[in-house]
């Protein structure tokens, strides 16, 4: 479904991604792990058109999407859920969710998607008329994911969904993402902490210093010497 | 009816007119953070367009037809201004300042063009409802009642639009988080463009009324702009409620000052009121950002 081929990304003079290639197949939940500041977020942003690569190519559903603006990608069903959420703080939870269904593919399914999101996150139902800026960290994360789901996406790129959440909430969020994936949405997720999220992943990539250093299943990860040392500290 | 009540009623009439004048400026300021210094000139341009049409092509037709014809024309003008002179500057450093300079320059272009085309002589559009009416003991003109009605309808309509329609929600979303807007697929350039169109269409409604209350003059836009500017700053970034409250405060103040001290004192009192309120609430009455 998504194929990234040897992309190189820079922030100014600073090189962030080195010949990164990865694949996400239809229906998979793929997780990219890596330490903070090693290019994971840049990778997702580059895929979603928020940052443009200097070289390399990205294709989605067989179509070349390198350099396309985010607006186009959203229409194609590639939706980004930001680590720093980017909610509309002075709008209500309901208004935020409604705007999630802004793109033309999502509009006709708005009511249906809203039911689905509220079933996944019943807590948002109670907060419907509250401004997004009044939500707790966990609720805001749910709203960000919910808003992304309103978009009728085929492919969700989720940036560190567990960031800043209490441990019990983290498990809940991963479980929900896994449910979303089982409902048919392909997911590429980026995470720092390999111990919790890996059990939900179909496949795992590890990123270090802007390079893919490992690719495999959870089982293969746990057997790998280098990975055990760097990522698990054992 | 007592003089105080008459004065208050007069203030509410003036306040209603100011609401119409300031709404367009407030919307652009709220959505795009641009203080459009040409807003008053756009109102004056609309008034001239309305006057020109009503005395040539539309001569003999009922005047309310101007409300159907002039706002769409100005909507297009607003979109052209955004596309032509503001969009190229957006995403550049010091954007808010350059936008002020550019719109200020554009105001001068409009004013001087009006002077060249129509000359310095004052023009006017006949009032739409000339008859004198008496409501609850207050004597006023039909035109003034019409202005109050239109101000109320615009405020209610805009609030509904901003809260209940997809486009309105998008207009509120873009200034709150432009990246957030981008990732849900809201085309912020188009939203800015439509906002300028809407603002100019509101200027058109203001212009048609201004032309039927005051004589039109090529430089007249400045007086309108200064008033709208004070109201919008007092209101707080883009707040519609703020515009309504600020317009009524200043309208009633104006009416009282005129009654007690004469019209020369209106602007000094306005600025004292402005400075007093802003020193207590630096972000304006309803400002959040």
Q: How many extended strands of chain B?
A: 2
CATH class of chain B: Mainly Alpha
Cα-to-Cα separation, first versus last residue of chain B: 43 Å
Let me know the largest β-sheet of chain A: 6 strands, mixed
Rg result of chain B? 19 Å
The profile of the biggest β sheet of chain B is: 2 strands, antiparallel
What is the oligomeric state here? Answer: heterodimer
- Relative strand content of chain A: 25-35%
- CATH architecture grouping of chain B: Orthogonal Bundle
Q: Which structural category do the helix and sheet elements of chain B fall into?
A: mainly alpha
Characterize this entry briefly.
The complex is a heterodimer of chains A (234) and B (289). Chain A is of the alpha/beta class and 234 residues long. Chain A contains eleven helices and ten strands.
Question: What does this molecule look like?
Answer:
The complex is a heterodimer of chains A (234) and B (289). Chain A has 234 residues and is α/β, with parallel strands linked by helices. Chain A has 11 helices and 10 strands. Chain A has helices at residues 40-47, 70-76, 93-100, 104-107, 110-120, 122-127, 137-149, 167-182, 194-197, 218-223, 225-232, and strands spanning 2-11, 14-24, 29-33, 55-60, 63-64, 78-81, 155-159, 186-191, 203-208, 211-216. Chain A is globular and about 50 Å long. In chain A, 48% of the residues are buried. Chain B is mainly alpha-helical. Helices cover 73% and strands 3% of the residues of chain B. Chain B has a two-stranded antiparallel ribbon. Classes of the chains: A alpha/beta (234), B mainly alpha (289). The A-B interface holds A 48, 50, 70-71, 74-75, 79-82, 85-91, 95, 98-100, 102-103, 107, 147, 151 and B 166, 169-170, 172-173, 176-177, 179-187, 288.
